[in-house]
Design a protein that fits this description.
It contains 17 helices and eight strands. The chain has about 325 residues and is an alpha/beta fold. An eight-stranded parallel beta sheet has the order 1-8-7-6-5-4-3-2. The longest helix has 16 residues, at about 280-295.
Length: about 325
Amino acid sequence: MPEALSFGPETHMSNEDPSRRGFIKGAGLAATGLVLPEITAAQAQGQAGAAPMSKGARFRAALATGQPLLLPVVESIMLARLCELEGFHGGFMGGSGMAARNALPNTSIQTVNEVIDYETHVMSNTDLPIVADGENGGGSPMTTYRTVEQLERGGAAVIMLEDSTGPESEYGGKGVAMAPKDVMVGRIKAAMDARRDGSVMIMARSDRPAKGYTEAETLDLLAALADAGADAFFVNGFTLDQQQRAKAALKKPLMIGSSGPAAEWHAKGVDMAFYHIDDIGIGAMYIALKEMKAKGGPFDEAARLRLPRDVSAKLIDQAEWLARAKKYGVIK
């Protein structure tokens, strides 16, 4: 069983933002010593004089190693950059992050434009390849076209589109109406047409199993979406055995949400999984508040969870900004 693919050398990071590479250089290797020979420096940077690989191309290269790909859920620029520093090959951003930012339930209450703006703000400030949630594309295949255009311009490596109708299907129980097959096929076709960089992956998400639809009904939809051009799939509600059957039928990469060992899902043919580390921060602050209240101010125990200052300095490019301040005469 191969090790989970999360760490790698600096050559996996593109130079889409050269300043981002400064703090990353060698960080993954320094932290782990792990080198992944399947993705070579030549592959990541191209031959001499060639442009470096895009985020989408680097994400595809990571998948091509055949190793399980761990995707932390990132909700901020700092967390995305921390994933870079630790050598992760990708991250996941969903509507859940936007919902949490606005203290809303994750039931598609926010508009797709709010989600797009939130995700592009983070993606444009990190070199980490991101699986970006496009929700239901706005409903119509016509609005899906625009959603994909905006997320690709915003720096997404993968754009995920789901078969929901909006809050109605989110709140609905078993058997609730989902987007009809022809509408979902239209969304994927629109996404394929809107995509300009062929390395950007289009991922189709189906929540049908979680809403009581049968495995056969779900696989029928997924086959149609594969024919429409979908590059990868997230099937919410399938067991790992069902995921394995889906992989055999579709022969395309699969993603799940997980909190368990990569060995378990990878053995069933699943290629990648996102892990919700994004809500740990607010939990730590809750503990700090409880401690402050109990001790009348101090929160010594919770303070131990603070990010080390040297790591924080790397994430905010402190040395580079200091150098600029000296160069421009801000510091005399």
